[in-house]
Amino acid sequence: MALAAPALRRYLLLLAQEHLEFRLPEITSLLSLCGGQFSSEQEIRVNSPFWILNIPSEEMARGLMKRTVCAKSIFELWGHGRSSGELYASLKNYPVDKMLPYLQSDSTYKVHIHTFNKTLTQAQKIEKIDALEFLPFKGKVNLKNPQHIFWILEDYGMNPNDVPEEPNHLYFGRWIADGQRELIESYSVKKRHFIGNTSMDACLSFIMANHGRVKPNDIVYDPFVGTGGLLISSAHFGAYVCGTDIDYNTIHGLGKASRKNQKWRGPDENIRANLRQYGLEKYYLDALVADSSRPIWRKGMLFDAIITDPPYGIREAPRRMGSQKETVKSVERSTENHFFVPSSYHLSDIFFDLLKFAAECLVMGGRLVYWLPIYRPEYTEEIIPRHPCLKLISNCEQMLSSHTSRRLITMEKVKEFKDQDENSYLLDGQYLPYRGHNSFREKYFSGVTKRIAKEEKDNQK
Q: Which residue ranges does the record assign to the tRNA (guanine(10)-N(2))-methyltransferase TRMT11 N-terminal domain (predicted)?
């Protein structure tokens, strides 16, 4: 006889109002990591800060909040309505046996009020709290250290220029847990020991690790590791991390500094020092000087996740190792007599090499998370690189300018890599359209973009 699935319980998720497109993939990925699946009681209003979710257990809800940087708090939802009357009726219909454990005479509690897009006076807040006197609270109010915290949450819509008198939605629930928003400040790049011109913002770094479903004891790899910002977020979640980069100076922390008012990097500015700064050095495997277009790894499924930000040529053109036949004039000298011959590395080749590597070296179910630069006037979903071993999970846009953006692509390995998959993308017509984006850098800096910017400025007058 099959066991019945656990009954779903209603929870209210309060989300941060930034990186809006990234929130749903993060929550979906984290719920699957906790052993559940995304299930909403209502159609999700993607831009809204309030989502009602169905989650099997409070333990799973807490597990979600131990990871998310997109959500602020989660509540066990006791009532919901489009007016005060609807909210009170919903609360009166909530099973009393589910309330009673938190309303006992020997317990303490307090009630908070949170309003979105409107500020209430203290008198208005007290009035709303007093209106809940019909709830069977038997405990004592304790404002400093209560055992149970309850919240009234009111949604006044998304338009700050048209705020309604009464809220569009009202919610009441028991607070369960807060998210990990404090990580954004504690891991801020401004406080980091070793940074570069392209070090990833801390919030986005944690979002990428969550999209990749990084978990303790995973092995996470970044083939364009730079200063190692993406390794830090994965290590924070208990994964062992490693990476490669073609730039010898960056890997070894040598040469000119990226920090303002600092000319040269110090003797201990390196990736290992970054992880040591956060008490994560034990998770650091190594970082190697290597060319991502020439894999150095033995064949096989080596990594649980590949999380990376490939170079797309805004600050400088992408490079790979050249051949011996290339002109000696092209040879660049690095510190300590290290030489390499730079050769052009087209964007299309970077991303297809990356997908092929992920298809071969990820474990089954492992995820590839990477940034894809886009020239928006020419963007269609068809130009996203594909591979038969990888399934597209999510595709989120972050604007760079009115005409350019980058998209965070998350893919999951769903098929074992075979020799016939080696160059499968060449058989696919979608490879050719993406090659048009090899000129992304030129388009980014072109006179066309300046003209677009001027036209937009004129339109705003």
A: 10-181
122 and 187 fall within a common domain:
no
Range of the domain at 403: 183-315+342-438
Q: Distance between CA 226 and CA 235 in Å, rounded? A: 16
One-letter identity of residue 253: G
DSSP 406: E
Beta bridge partners of 287: 243
267's CB contacts (< 8 A; 6+ apart) are none
Residues 21 and 121 in one domain: yes
Could you read off the pLDDT of 175-216 as tens digits, one per residue? 999 999 999 999 999 999 887 777 899 999 999 999 999 999
Q: What's the rounded Cα separation, in Å, for the pair 146 and 109?
A: 5
**Residue 417 in tokens:** 């890599």
CATH number where 242 lies = 3.40.50.150
Select the more confidently predicted residue: 384 or 321: 384
Mean pLDDT rounded to a whole number for the chain: 86
Using an 8 Å Cβ cutoff, are 256 and 263 in contact? Answer: yes
Q: CATH number, domain at 122?
A: 3.30.2130.30
pTM of the model: 0.88
Q: How far is CA 177 from CA 60, 74, 172, in A?
A: 11, 6, 15
CB proximity list for 298: less than 8 A, separation 6 or greater: none
CB 372 within 8 A of CB 410: no
Give the whole-angstrom CA distance, residue 158 versus residue 244. 43
Q: Residue 51: which H helix or E strand, with range?
A: strand 50-55
256 lies in some domain: yes
The one-letter code for the residue type at 300 is: G
Are residues 162 and 250 located together in one domain of the fold? no
Q: Which residue has the tokens 């009464």?
A: 166
Task: Work out the number of other CB atoms within 10 angstroms of the CB of residue 265.
Answer: 21
